[in-house]
């Protein structure tokens, strides 16, 4: 560890990146300390602050996207609100800033990230900033910067300051040559999107830093994530959220994927719980650093049939677009047995429960306001994606 610290410090001096003159003993190695949250099970909603004694200080990049605010809420319940720093390049709402610290952080700005880590004594980074699949295909140059260069910055700083780092991967990290049903944890990965290429790069680089420097890198490959209170960011699985809005608002939905396109999905509660669970594991209890996690797989046709059990007049039409080719190269079913065996991963939502939860959450929104705001947001994002 000392040799790694010296080497990292010298490398950083070479790059002229260090603000401080003190080469050794400068960095605490919080990634190697144990942090504890009392209580073994998570309380995703309405829980209380269960943390005690030593609490990690956590930075979440890209936290104004679909996953960030929910994760901040969970972490704050466990470690205290002032220990969790949400960040993004977007302007936050008052609601966000009223709930805990929010700071500007552009992941392309190394010094800006470095200053945040030092000033706020960050121990863990959850790196969510990214351009998702459909948006990335439409902006390849920007996707390479945000998804690859941004990840380099985060990984290098995490290594330099001894942080624990979580960076999600995706089913998009697989390609048409990968076995699709089920897709194992370790298999051929030849993605055909820049999003997938950038995520394979993240997985390999994180594992390399872990192997070479002992970086405490942790990575989960998420399927499409279903959430009712945050908007999808322009991924190929977004249909599985929009369908609920349109079902409740219009009674019908036109799907950009064909009826039999089977993809893995998970409920956001399961997704966020998986992040907390893997982050709280001791480093030595994780024999590998990249794991598939999954909830349930379904097709648009099967999802529509499940929705029809609650909304019998619901109709679905199909008009596949460019996203069909992306979906056709992705897994149909993710094999998450490695995560189940190594650290006890268990999803709590099957397809039926996901549908019930989405309809129960969204029904009051459309009964009261006809969901004008959420519809506008999603259309903007889909315009960018197209
Ligand atoms: N949501 C899913 O279904 C899903 C599935 C698999 C993997 N993931 C991964 O999870 C992570 C979070 O996903 P999400 O759905 O919340 O994404 P999102 O698109 O909703 O949010 C990404 C955020 O990154 C921010 N961002 C963009 N450029 C930035 C920059 N230069 N600096 C800082 N922030 C920047 C954006 O403002 C946005 O708020 C991503 O890495 C994504 O690849 C998500």
Proper CATH architecture: 3-Layer(aba) Sandwich
- CATH superfamily, called what? NAD(P)-binding Rossmann-like Domain
Low-confidence stretches: 1-33, 36-41, 43-52, 371-386
**Average pLDDT level:** 86
| CATH fold name | Rossmann fold
Give the structural class: alpha/beta
- Strand content range: 5-15%
How many separate domains? Answer: 1
Small molecules bound in the structure, each named once: nicotinamide-adenine-dinucleotide
CATH class group? Alpha Beta
Give the helices and strands as they follow along the chain.
HEHEHEHEHHEEHEEHEEHEEHEHHHH
Global morphology: globular
Total number of helical segments? 14
Gyration radius over CA = 21 Å
Give the helix level as a range of percent: 40-55%
Please report the distance between the alpha carbons of the first and last residues. Answer: 47 Å
Main pleated sheet: 8 strands, parallel
The beta-strand count equals 13
Describe this protein's structure.
The structure is a single chain. The protein is of the alpha/beta class and 386 residues long. The protein has a single domain (2-16, 40-385), classed as NAD(P)-binding Rossmann-like Domain (Rossmann fold, 3-Layer(aba) Sandwich), CATH 3.40.50.720. The chain is built from 14 helices and 13 strands. The protein has helices at residues 2-14, 68-79, 94-98, 110-119, 133-138, 140-161, 194-213, 239-249, 268-279, 300-308, 323-328, 337-343, 351-369, 372-385, and strands at residues 58-61, 84-88, 102-104, 124-127, 164-166, 169-170, 216-222, 224-226, 252-255, 263-267, 290-292, 296-298, 315-318. β6 (169-170), α7 (194-213) and β7 (216-222) form a beta-alpha-beta unit. The longest helix is centred in the middle third of the chain and has 22 residues, at 140-161. It starts with a helix and ends with a helix. Mean pLDDT is 86; it is low at 1-33, 36-41, 43-52 and 371-386. Residues 61-62, 64-68, 88-90, 105-108, 128-130, 132, 146, 150, 168, 170, 222, 224-225, 233, 235, 237 line the site of nicotinamide-adenine-dinucleotide.
């Amino acid at each position: 560890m000392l040799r790694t610290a010296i080497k990292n410090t010298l490398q950083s001096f070479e790059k002229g990146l260090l603000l401080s003159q003190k080469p050794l003993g400068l960095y605490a190695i919080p990634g190697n300390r144990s942090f504890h949250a009392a209580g073994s099970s998570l309380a995703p909603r309405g829980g209380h602050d269960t943390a005690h004694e030593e609490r990690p200080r956590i930075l979440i990049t890209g936290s104004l996207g679909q996953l960030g605010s929910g994760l901040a809420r969970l972490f704050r319940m466990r470690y205290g609100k002032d220990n969790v720093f949400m960040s993004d390049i977007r302007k936050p709402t008052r609601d966000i800033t009223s709930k805990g610290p929010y700071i500007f952080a552009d992941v392309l700005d190394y010094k800006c990230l470095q200053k945040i880590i030092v000033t706020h004594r960050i121990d863990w980074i959850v790196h969510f900033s990214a351009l998702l699949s459909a948006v990335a295909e439409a902006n390849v140059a920007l996707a390479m910067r945000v998804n690859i260069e941004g990840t380099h910055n985060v990984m290098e700083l995490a290594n330099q300051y001894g942080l624990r780092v979580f960076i999600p991967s995706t089913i998009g990290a697989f390609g048409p040559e990968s076995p699709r049903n089920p897709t194992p944890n370790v298999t051929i990965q030849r993605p055909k999107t820049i999003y997938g290429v950038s995520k394979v790069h993240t997985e390999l680089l994180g594992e390399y830093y872990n192997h070479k420097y002992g970086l405490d890198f942790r990575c989960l490959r998420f399927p499409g994530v279903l959430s009712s209170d945050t908007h999808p960011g322009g991924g190929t699985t977004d249909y599985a959220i929009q369908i609920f809005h349109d079902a409740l608002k219009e009674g019908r939905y036109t799907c950009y994927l064909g009826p039999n396109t089977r993809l893995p999905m998970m409920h956001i509660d399961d997704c966020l719980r998986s992040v907390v669970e893997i982050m709280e594991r001791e480093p030595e209890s994780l024999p590998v650093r990249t794991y598939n996690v999954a909830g349930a797989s379904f097709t648009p046709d099967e999802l529509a049939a499940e929705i029809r059990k609650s909304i019998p007049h619901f109709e679905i039409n199909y008009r596949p677009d460019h996203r069909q080719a992306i979906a056709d190269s992705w897994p149909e079913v993710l094999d998450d047995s490695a995560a189940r065996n190594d650290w006890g991963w268990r999803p709590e939502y099957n397809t039926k429960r996901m549908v019930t939860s989405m309809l129960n959450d969204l029904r009051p929104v459309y009964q009261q306001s006809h969901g004008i705001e959420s519809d506008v947001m999603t259309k903007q994002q889909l315009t960018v994606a197209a």
